[in-house]
Every structure is written in C-alpha cells, then in structure tokens.
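Lecture notes, structural biology module. Today: joint structure prediction for complexes of two components.
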Amino acid sequence: QSALTQPASVSGSPGQSITISCTGTSSDVGGFNYVSWYQQHSGKAPKLIIYDVSYRPSGISHRFSGSKSGNTASLTLSGLQADDEADYYCSSYTSSSTPYVFGTGTRVTVL
Amino acid sequence: QVQLVQSGAEVKKPGSSVKVSCKASGDTFSTTSFTWVRQAPGQGLEWMGEIIPMFGRANYAQKFEATVTITADESTSTAYMELSGLRFDDTAVYFCATRPRKCTGGSCSSKDWFETWGQGTLVTVSS
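The predicted structure, tokenised, for the full assembly:
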C-alpha cells in the first residue's frame, strides 16, 4: 500500500487561505468517505483536525475545513495564523490488507 | 476522552527486541482500538497495526507482520508493541493512538480516524 501523495510544502501569509491536497486511488480516498487530517507541530504527537472528510472534532477551529473530489481530498486553512505552522498529514481507510494509509505529509510555512 | 501515556525512550542493539507500552485511562479499554504508528526521523507517519483488546487478535500492516507483535493487558489497561530483529532503520518515534468506538441504534463499531495519541516513544537502534 503506497502512501497518499501530498505536496511537500505549502506557504502563505498571515490571514491568507491555503489548500493542501491528498491524492490516492479508488481503493482508498476515492472509495470511502473515511479521510482524516492531522496537524503535527515539531516534536509533538499528531492531532486530529478533520475526520470523515469534512467533520471537525470538538475544539478544532472553524478555520480548518475538508473536502473530497474523486481520488483527491483537500484540507483548507483559512485566516492563516503563525500557530498553523506545522506538518499536516492526511489518512484514509483502504480496501487493501493494510486498512489505513497516511499521506506523505505537507510542511506549512507562515511567511 | 481516553488519555494515553507511553513508556520512555529506549536504546537498543541491532538484532535485539524492544517492547513499548501505552497505558490508557478511562473505562473503555476493552472496546477501544489501539493503533501503533511509526515515524522515522524527518519522515512521515506509517500505520503498523492495531488491536481491540476484547477481540484479542491483532491486525498488522504487511510490512510488519514478521517483526511486530501487538498485545493488550486488560488488567492494567495497557497496550504493547514489540518489535524484534531490530535494524538501524527501525530508529523512529513510535506512537500509540486510539480509534473511537461509536454506537448507533444498538450497533457499535470503531471509527476510521485516530482520535487520541500518546506522546510518542523514541527507539534508537545503535551499535
């Protein structure tokens, strides 16, 4: 099972919006609405920010939103803030013998 | 919500084994899915395997089937991940995480996201 494909890095200025893509196949992202997103600050554990494509857990800012089209899921960060600077990973359920796969990760830089 | 506390950093020789623990708080241990995720230095996240204590049987990523053993002790609410035949490229931070169990209309299932994470355990393989 190959990792889902994400851009290595995305940057934006404070207040701007950025979008991170997560591309898989019909056996994972495209086949199920089980995409989740995680934020990981340097040296810390990942933190769930989106589940089931577009749902936010309690306590997660409305500035984070998720969507999916075909085999590609997307995470949008609006009103970019300094604290958004972190690594972001997508994950999807898969129909393979390895039931979950993560994305390659995207480093977000706030300029 | 469950909280997870992992065991401390380890330094191991090549060829040896390491066992990392993940102690959970709360009263839903037996029905919670415990997942292990690996992150090599500067690299991404990698799903290794998981166990639901009430069922006992672990499920592994194909890559780790021969070298990883995941177990759970309900008496201490602790999940374990043992990695054998350590190689230098097993040097990584190992995280435990839980998938929440939700019940609707009398039917319960583990959901497909990783809700709570342990703090991570650094395993260094060095001669």
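Point to remember: The mean pLDDT of chain B is 95.
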